[in-house]
Design brief:
This protein is α+β, with helices and mostly antiparallel strands. It is built from 8 helices and 16 strands. Helix 1 packs parallel to helix 8 and helix 4 packs antiparallel against helix 5.
Amino acid sequence: MAGMSCARRLAALGHDVVLFDKGRGPGGRMASRRIEHEGRTLRFDHGAQYFTARDQRFQTQVDEWEQMGVVARWDTAGKDAWVGTPAMNAPLKAMSDGLDVRFGTRVEAIEPADGGWQLVGEGTPDARFDTVVVAVPAEQAAPLLSELAPVASDLAARTVSDPCWTLMVAFESPVQFQGDTIREDGPIGWAARNNSKPGRESDECWVVQGSPAWSRQHLEDDAASVAAVLLGAFTNQVGGDLPPVLTKTAHRWRYARSGSAAEGHWWDSRNKVGVCGDWLIAPRVEAAYLSGLELAEAIGTAG
């Protein structure tokens, strides 16, 4: 979200922008997972579950997304809760339209080159860039910035994220439970009936996320054992027998919920190095958007 926000504003200001992402498609921590099971496609929002819009700049963007049909309100999580439709990554897909986004590219280092910057890593181009923006979680930003922006690197190193183990489980029939969400119960930090969100298909799919403390305690456990524990906790919370499980799997988000450096964005106008991300403001989708937007405005002002 931060990188896309920054890139779109920079492009609107007349800059030529190229984005590089190690993932296979738009999403990041707003990603959605598709699992094929016996001819059925099961879908899970296994990262961010919803977002809110409080700043007018982000509200304006959300209104535009609503008109495009890529977001909708999800009152189950609160009157101010929004989700992407038909999946959480829908706004990111919309933002990527018209941009030069190169997925499957792992940037391992950024080196000086002829008064600009050269990217180093699998799939990176043999090209020089005038300006470089780093829009990744703090723990990943710190090593990338250690040589070219040590002050920003140190700031990132001091901003620690919370991890999250996430269980994705599909059932043969609806789970008999009064409500579509569970909040903070034992190892569970959050659970949601994914198909209760607007624009979803009817398959009974649940996302069960471990609490930050539990996830950190079990960070290096194997996925199968994590899935078993979270499913057991979910069963206890629901009460009674669950329908037969069609499929289940666990995903570890090592950097799920960002810390907060309270900086907004970071920009070195002399060396033309910028940093944006939710961790520079707060652990919210809106914060990521605003950090990228504000960095782009700073770069645009600097010319």
